Every structure is written in C-alpha cells, then in structure tokens.
Amino acid sequence: MNSSKHTELANHAWSVADLLRGDYKQSDYGKVILPFTVLRRLECVLEPTRQKVAEEVARFEGQDMDTDHFLRRASGHSFYNKSDLTLKKIAADPQNAAQLLQIYVAGFSDNAREVLDKYEFTQQIKKLAGADLLYKVIGKFTDLDLHPENVSNHNMGYIFEELIRRFAEQSNETAGEHFTPREVIQLMVNLLIAPDGDALSLPGVIRTVMDPACGTGGMLSAAEEHIKAYNDDATVEVYGQELNPESWAICRSDLMIKGQDPENIAYGNSFSDDGHKRERFDYLLANPPFGVEWKKVKEAVEYEHQHLGEAGRFAAGLPRINDGSLLFLQHMISKMKPVDVKGRGGSRIAIVFNGSPLFTGAAGSGESEIRRWILENDWLEAIVALPDQLFYNTGISTYFWILTNRKSADHKGKVVLLDARDQFQKMRKSLGDKRKELGKQHIADVTRLYEEAIGAAADPDHPFHGKVKVFENEAFGYQRITVERPLKLRFEVTEETLAALAAAKPVQKLADADAFVGAVRTLLGSSWATKSEALIALKDAVVGVGLLWPTGAPFAKAVRDTVGVRDPEGEVQLVKGQPEPDAELRDYENVPLGEDLEAYLKREVHPHVPDAWIDHSKTKIGYEIPFTRHFYVYEPPRPLAEIDAELKALEAEIQALLGEVTK
C-alpha cells in the first residue's frame, strides 16, 4: 500500500470531524475518531471468524465456565466479540443506535473493552446520541474498509499513527505529553540500535523493546520499524507502561491493530505499580515528562529505597521531589538483561532528559549518587546534546543519554559527549514550541558521527572533531572538600559586646544577671590580646563586687563568643589543643577525583591562606557532567574601533532618514 492510500483512509476517518464541528471542540475530535477507528478495525479483523466464535458461544451457553481461551482460539486473535451485531446493523437502526452500540461493545473480550473504556467511549456514545450524531458517525465508519486483506497490520499502524499525529496537533496544549516528534524518535532509535546492526540481520532474531512512559506508543512503533528495516523477518515484541488513560488506550489500540499483544502495555504508574516486574528487555527507551514531581508516589518509592536496597530499583539514591527523571532511568536500568561470562546478553537504553540530570545536586545528594552509580558501573556510553525548540510543549535544550551494560571494547571506561545542537532546520510553520526539526541529512550525519565518535575525537583532521569529546568515567567525578581556617579573636568590652553578653542565655539565667553585667561594664573600653588575659580581668571585676564567677561550658562559651571579636591578627582559638575552625571563613572546593588533596591544598590554597587545612571527615565524592563547559568556545569581543565605526554609520543613517522626514 502506498502512502497516498494511507492518507486517503486516514482522511476518510478524519472526515468525521465535519460532523462533529460545533458539538465538539477541535481538540476533542480525536476522542471520537480514534476509538471508532479502533472499533472498525477490530470488527474488520474479526469478520472472517465471526461465525466460528458464534458457534463456540452457543456451544458453551448455560455452562458455568471460563470460555475466554476457547473464544480467542476460535477468533484466531487475542480478542473477540460474542455479539451478532455489526456497525452496519446498528447504523440501520438510528432510534436504537446508542443502546445497540453499548451491547455491541459489551460483547468484546475484556482486553478490547478495557481499551474502549479508557477512551471513555460510553460517555462519547451518550454525547453523540444527544446531539443526534451517533448513527451518522457510525455510518461514516461502516464505509471505511479496514479489512486485513486490504490493509495489513503494518499499514494499519501507519494510518493510526497519522490519526494520532493529527489529534496531537489539534491538541497543542497537551501535544508534548502525548507525542514526541517523529524525527527525534528516529534519531534516538538510530543511536540505540546503531552498534547492533549485524546482530539484528541474523535469521530468526527476536528482540524485545520497552518504554516505561510510552504515551501513545510512538517510540515503540519507531523501534519496531527500525529493527524490521534491518531484517524484515525479525520478531519484535514491544512492551510499555502509561499513566494517562487516554494515551494508554491509544497505545494499546495501536498494538491490537498491528497484531501485537495488547497485554504488553500496562496501565498505571511505573514507580508505584511496576507492570513488568522481574522482566528484562533488549532495548529500553523513553521520553519521560521533564521536571514533574513524584510526590504522589513518594511513600512507595521511599519504602523501596529504604527497605529493598539492591533488591529494589532505587538503591542508588532519590532525586529531589520536584523532578522524577532519574527515577525513570533507575527503573529502566533495573530491567537490563544480565551479561554472561562470554559477553552475551545485556541491554541498551536511550532516554530524553533536559539539562537538569547532568549537574543538579551537590556531592552526596541523591542526583549525584545516581550519576556516581551509573558511571562507576560503566553503563553510560554517551550523551548527545540536541537543538532547542524541538518539542511541542517546551523550547528548552534536551539531551539523549545512551546507556548499556555491554559496551564495546573501545568504549569501556569511557563516555562520549556529542554536540548536535547545530543539527537542525527551521520549520516553515511552528507547532506549539516546536520551531526546529531534524532533517534526514541531520539524522544521518549524527548517526554516522555517533558510530565514529571514538575515532573522530582522536583525529584532529576529522570534519566533526570539535563536536565530539571522549572522557574517562572518572573525569566526571570530584572530591568536595571542606577548607577550614582557624578562628582568630581579640577580646574587648564595648557597648556592642556588652549588649551581646547581656543577651546571652547562660548570662540571663544567672540569679544576679544585672549585677554581673554591671560589674563587666566597669571594664568598658578595655581590650586584651588573649583569651586568658580577658578572663582574668573579667573574673577580677566580677569577684571585686562580691559575686561568684559562674562555671560550666555553656557559660564559658557565651563569654568567649560575645566578648571575642574576629581579628585576622588575633589569637588562634584551640579545642583540645587543635585550632578551632571559623565557620564564617569555611570554604568548599571541588577537586578532581584521584588528585592528592594535600598536594592540591599546598598548591592552590596555601599561597593565599597558609593556615588553612582540610577537614577530611567532611569530604564527599560527587559526579556531574558539565556538558556545555566542555564545548564552550571563547569568542573575543569586537575591537572598539569596529564598534565605534558601526555606531557612526548608524548615526549617519538616522540623520539621513530624519533629513528626509523634515523636507
């Protein structure tokens, strides 16, 4: 079937929009057209075995047993319909169309009916009937020939995806949630599958693909097509999970229409209700929502993190509550196939992120620990920076993260950073926030550069040498050190220090607090270079008026902290014979992983502050991937003479224009 036939059939289905105009918002057309397209396709697929299913229904009538297995076998598919109704019969009885359609839908097997339920099909039936449109819509679809002998599963997939695309474009406000641009998916799948071309071309090859945030199933469809392009005889089994009921229904419909098993698409939240527990897949890919909080599943995720440890998915760490992106990645990593001793098995992962997961979170934070876990296990193969304004609902910069537990020998211990931010063409017409797209040549160039990345980075003469950099895993690690400096004080009694002393809680608790402060006031204007000198003078003043000098560590600290004044030339304060760190002078430094910390201190810090030291008990290991920093190219400012000449030229142009106006 050629593309014009696909378009013709899609146009026929979408022509129902002419009937809906006025009673439905434009963005809601898909809520009618998509489920009716599914219904019509299911009817056409089941038509050859309708009689056989009817015979089975009659055979088991009145018997208290589960007939699902027998009816599936009779239909020859994973679904069936027990009713003797058809859309044509229902359209011929306009007065009873709503009731008959409800009966017809109820006759489907549970898995097919569940899909229609998620489309809220019953409500659409009522709404169409109320507007006196139901029998007209049904009539339109009875004329749509979707029989398998005329429209194969593969071609039906194209038609349904075209309808999904139109629905997404009509619903611009939610397009990004349901629809990832096709060309972005194509590049992502290219990079995911790139190293496996030879293996995929083998006869009888079977591959499983999983998307834990599958939306309407676009990525799964593209992955299937791409693998089939290598080998048309390959068996591709797709799996997914989706939280949005409408998107789930569309994806599941797509699988039913293509002849895949719809049971492979689970409904629910991947974090709290994993629909594919203990399953492992060859390829995993996802475009999870950016910056979406996971507060609703916080309890379940934290329980798994705290109690299941390595047996769970989130042992490495938990990101901040307002962005669950790295939870999706940990979930996907948990579903990689193990690699055996001969290097067979394993999986590959591709996921779309914004910039946040690259660097958000300081050393020791959940995000940093997740990055550390990934890099120390040598799973991160590459990060690819994409142009901005590629997606429908956001113009921000995005990145592909490519991971695998079966790196090739030349990639082991390394991470490729590939800058594809300039690989785009401007769209003639924007779609939401999408103003750029990847052309076929851009996709081919980036794919080829990805395959040649190691060589391109090492070859200064390669035309794209500046667009690829290769780093050892450890290059992204750092040691977060705490640099301390000694607390240095001089001691004095001034109005300010006296007020602070009087306000200190240990002083206020004294029975004769006012007399104590009064005694110290007699020393107003006095100062001492050392703490011992100050304490002797203070004690003499207090005892001199007949008071006892209070004891206890809290009181001694209060006196020291209030009468002591920071002074770079003051006395170094000691605790158990060691310099006491000054919290106000405390500083933090990030030192490359593996570098000797004391050597760093001597080289970088001591020339400026010779008395500084590192508190090794507070040192933390962190990981971040500063992508843009590695590709930053300094552009010197233009010479002043050039700028001045340009300003003078503009002034002359303005004067000339003003002269024309005043003539």
UniProtKB/TrEMBL annotation:
<dbReference type="Pfam" id="PF12161">
    <property type="entry name" value="HsdM_N"/>
</dbReference>
<dbReference type="InterPro" id="IPR022749">
    <property type="entry name" value="D12N6_MeTrfase_N"/>
</dbReference>
<dbReference type="GO" id="GO:0009007">
    <property type="term" value="F:site-specific DNA-methyltransferase (adenine-specific) activity"/>
</dbReference>
<dbReference type="InterPro" id="IPR029063">
    <property type="entry name" value="SAM-dependent_MTases_sf"/>
</dbReference>
<dbReference type="Pfam" id="PF02384">
    <property type="entry name" value="N6_Mtase"/>
</dbReference>
<dbReference type="InterPro" id="IPR051537">
    <property type="entry name" value="DNA_Adenine_Mtase"/>
</dbReference>
<dbReference type="GO" id="GO:0003677">
    <property type="term" value="F:DNA binding"/>
</dbReference>
<feature type="domain" description="DNA methylase adenine-specific">
    <location>
        <begin position="153"/>
        <end position="453"/>
    </location>
</feature>
<dbReference type="InterPro" id="IPR038333">
    <property type="entry name" value="T1MK-like_N_sf"/>
</dbReference>
<dbReference type="GO" id="GO:0008170">
    <property type="term" value="F:N-methyltransferase activity"/>
</dbReference>
<keyword id="KW-0489">Methyltransferase</keyword>
<protein>
    <recommendedName>
        <fullName>site-specific DNA-methyltransferase (adenine-specific)</fullName>
        <ecNumber>2.1.1.72</ecNumber>
    </recommendedName>
</protein>
<keyword id="KW-0680">Restriction system</keyword>
<comment type="similarity">
    <text>Belongs to the N(4)/N(6)-methyltransferase family.</text>
</comment>
<feature type="domain" description="N6 adenine-specific DNA methyltransferase N-terminal">
    <location>
        <begin position="9"/>
        <end position="141"/>
    </location>
</feature>
<dbReference type="GO" id="GO:0032259">
    <property type="term" value="P:methylation"/>
</dbReference>
<dbReference type="GO" id="GO:0009307">
    <property type="term" value="P:DNA restriction-modification system"/>
</dbReference>
<dbReference type="InterPro" id="IPR003356">
    <property type="entry name" value="DNA_methylase_A-5"/>
</dbReference>
<dbReference type="InterPro" id="IPR002052">
    <property type="entry name" value="DNA_methylase_N6_adenine_CS"/>
</dbReference>
<keyword id="KW-0949">S-adenosyl-L-methionine</keyword>
<keyword id="KW-0808">Transferase</keyword>
